[in-house]
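Section: Multi-chain targets

For targets with more than one molecule, the full set of components is provided together so that the structure can be written out for the assembly as a whole rather than chain by chain. Components appear in the order listed by the source. The example entry contains two components.
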Amino acid sequence: MADPTAVAGPTTDPAAALYRTVALVRGFEQRAIELVRAKVVLGGIHPYTGQEAIAAGTCAALRPDDVITSTHRGHGHVLAKGADPARTMAELAGRTTGLNRGRGGSMHAADFGVGVLGANAIVGAAVPIAAGAAWAFRRAGSDRVALSYFGDGAVSQGVVLEAFNLAALWRVPLVLVCENNGFATSMRTADTVAGSILGRAAAFGIPARSVDGTDPEAVRDATAEAVARARAGEGPTLLECTAYRFDAHHTWEHTARPRYRTDEEVAAGRARDPLEIQGARIPAATRAAIDAEVAELLDRAVAFACEGPHPDPATALDHLYATGMRARAGAR
Amino acid sequence: MPNLSYLKALNRAIGDEMGRDEAVCVFGEDVGVAVTHATAGLLKRFGPDRVLDTPISEQAFTGFATGAALAGLRPLIEFQIPALLFLVFEQIANQAHKFSLMTGGQTRVPVTYLLPGSGSRESWAGQHSDHPYSLFAHVGVKTVVPATPADAYGLLATAIRDDDPVVVFAPSGALGVREDVDLAALAPVPLGVGRIHRSGTDVTVVAVGHLVHDALAVAEELAGTVSVEVFDPRSLFPFDWSGLAASLERTGRLVVVDDSNRTCGIGGEIIATAAEEMRLIAPPRRVTRPDGAVLPFARGLDLACQPTRAQLRAAVEKAVGDG
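Its structure, encoded as tokens over all components, is:
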């Protein structure tokens, strides 16, 4: 029987470590949804359930000093890159103990200390930002890379395609991870994307491949190749990671219930579950130990989030300017 | 004493800042050959790793500069056309500007956006003649509009060194201005500190950018009948409110000349703040572009949409006559 303590840390068997990340993200999202219902997390969230293998697999192929940019559906990326779940949950709850001191929330969670240059609430906006960071690394003589997540909806944004052009032209050390979860909000990929996602990369001479985004190990291996290319100075690579969004575009749908897919379709999509796929690769006892450890960790994260202080309204304009410049108040 | 042109002052400021700080780099269209002259000689001096000619891809390279800034660099972006700011408003107002607050102060985005040739160039028509500085002041992006070569040098140097995004409008109406300066005395000019170009006791004229020179001409025309103080805010956001208040303590009358469209132009904010908080003995007045102006092509129509010296003179006389 496996020693439960052997799977609690980050330096364990790679298959178990991947499972742990998937389980952590799954459990985090479930608890975050509960906190949305309890009105502890305001503004709702964009659940990442079903896509956990992408965050887990990609981040497993990165070094701590590499950076990522994330999306509105970003909790998985932030956690997989190494942000503290308790501080991430506290950020969702808008507390001073959150990653962003309660100034960012779900859609802007950032942790520069672990290379998370921020989740971004404008679809596709972070792709050129990641490219610029990657270029700066290369200019500094380092072999650090940047990885940018974006969805299938983003491939119709002009700025994303412009960024493909710049990144390829200047051979920046960038990994482009398109998470094709089947939907741009309510719109099916086939109804929003002319041509193909891989074809867009090909148009700019960017090597691209499609990966099973429900298989953490497949994602990790494909990312490792892309990262190696980037570190070697060979420029960007695009990975189209396909998965199925298990839950709503946004928790708003839990009450509004827009109908754009059937229950049968969702059930079929949920049948290919990254948690089960990776869970089947490790001993049952290891899996159980990880589940217990993660559950306890998340219990503590929720408690930490709920105990954190709400920011003082008098500090609403703190951090508006990096220089500390103070803006005029709205009433004087 | 050397005679320095406004454009050469911009060029000198960029070169000096690149010389003193390896992190400063330049992005833009045609910056290598320097079609605007603002970047003349920089490619040869600093090389292609620091002076990057970009594709015509404003949104991507503006976002790219934000990323480079997050990774520790201090990019300066040159835009040849002021209306390109509309194209990259998302990248500046919604991304670069918001990172500091949204991340709870985890990072900074020290990017400078330089517009060498903002406002009308006379007959460059509807999409090349805008002067959208009020838009950036409105969203809270640091915004400067230098009027003279020494201030162009000093404010651009400050913008590059600033840890926040700064938009530098260099009005086409000021690019030809020259002045005798001691080059060794050129120095950064702090943001939020106005400059009184001419002292007076009857009325304060707040003039933005190239209009400072028109205000000085009108003040000279009126000398003997009206004593006009010409106040150049130099930076619109932050704004030197205490400097303006001190001027109005002396004069009590306010006229603003502002090359913005009238509704929500910075002139409206200056007058509103003065009315709320400062000493006024006569109704304040402003001379601006018309509401919603789209500059027509024909030269006479273009000029008809810009503030004129005659309009300013009439506004000053009315302000004095009213109180």
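The longest helix of chain A spans residues 14-37.
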